[in-house]
Amino acid sequence: MTQEKPYAIGIDLGGTKVIAAIVDQNGSILSQANAPTQKEDAAEIVISRIGDLVSSVLADSGVGISQIRGIGIATAGIIDTNRQMVIFASNLNWSDVAIGDKLGQRFGVPVQLINDANSAAVAEWAFGSASGTDDLIYVTVSTGVGAGIISGGRLITGIGDSAGEFGHISLDPEGPLCACGNRGCLENYVSGLALAKMAQEQLQAGAESSLRTVCEGELGRITAKEIGEQAESGDPLSISLMKQAGYYLGVGLTNLIHLFNPQVIVFGGGVMKNGRILLEEAERVIRQRCISRMASQATFQFTTMGAEAGVLGAAGLYFPAARKQVAV
Ligand SMILES: [Zn+2]
Q: Does residue 327 surpass a pLDDT of 90?
């Protein structure tokens, strides 16, 4: 076997900052640096700033570009992984930006793009606590809901890099119209935005809750964070909202388990930081509704990754994830 290059570079490209890191096959970060991104900056300027960050982490770590397998870039928005282009990213004000070609020309290494939810899934698969399996799903419950699906050792991207839109599976065919065009999407019942909206409606209708004190009477200030915290402190309204969201999440996860028969489902995203009650309710629904053999084959866990998940997932594209050990 030929000696493989030991490192990859992961880039986490966000609307307020970009982070670059050199990562080894164990997911250890040798060096990292970041720079601001602003919507007003032209794409050319941001790309040249990213290039400078790459040069700086290489210099800091003493790693030569000849030891780098490639550069992975995790970003929100619509991407094209065949042409390594950002097709549209509202947070950066980008459309049709050939970032892969530009960085590839500058450094002479392969460049691959990956979307946020998929990069979190790859990070868990390559380096996280779920790295022993080739069948895992990462579910993020944040402002919206999304999923990154690894099935049979392959990241499922679909033909247009859009697979895993878990937030837009319909749970009620006649439910509220969603921005995506479908009705009764999971995101309307489970996301951070949905939780805040439901809390505000109930409080407006006169419900008693410690949320009133927390928001000092300004209902518009309530977010999923306060609801999660108050649920953990025993507030009955917050508990019932988290349970209701957990119920719908459980129905959605049952569909997901029936489709992919995963071994591990990893949960991340802001809502899941206080997601104990939500997940307990979801698991109860799964045990009740899911084909029992498939339910018992799946385990559920919260992500243990922190702010580095983006760069680790992007770099993880270049490392074969821990395959199941097969005796030969
Ligand atoms: Zn939708």
A: no
Interval 242-261 mean pLDDT: 98
State the distance from the centre of ligand 1 to the C-alpha of 312, rounded, in angstroms. Answer: 29
Based on the fold, state whether residues 116 and 157 are members of the same structural domain. no
4 Cα–ligand 1 center, Å: 43
CATH code (residue 174)? 3.30.420.40
Same domain, 90 and 151: no
Residue 204, burial from CB neighbour count under 10 angstroms (0-12, 13-18, 19+)? exposed
Residue 217 CA to its chain's centroid (Å): 33
Regarding whether 142 and 280 lie in a shared domain, the answer is: yes
Lowest mean pLDDT among 37-41, 71-75, 169-173, 191-195: 37-41
The residues with which 300 forms a beta bridge, in sequence order, are 265
CA 96–ligand 1 middle distance (angstroms) = 25
Q: Which protein residues have their CB within 5 A of the ion that is ligand 1?
A: 168, 178, 180, 182, 185
- Residue 180 CA to ligand 1 center (angstroms) comes to 4
Q: Is residue 321 a part of any domain in this protein? A: no
What domain range includes position 119? Answer: 7-125+309-316
Any idea what the Cα angle at residue 145 is, between residues 309 and 219, rounded to 5°? 110
Cα–Cα distance for residue pair 235/110, rounded to 1 Å: 52
Tens digit of each residue's pLDDT (9 = 90 or more) over 213-246 = 999 989 999 999 999 999 999 999 999 999 999 9
Residues 54 and 88 in one domain: yes
End-to-end CA distance of the chain: 17
Domain membership flag for residue 79 = yes
The Å distance, Cα 190 to ligand 1 centre, comes to 12
Considering the domain boundaries, does residue 91 fall inside one?
yes
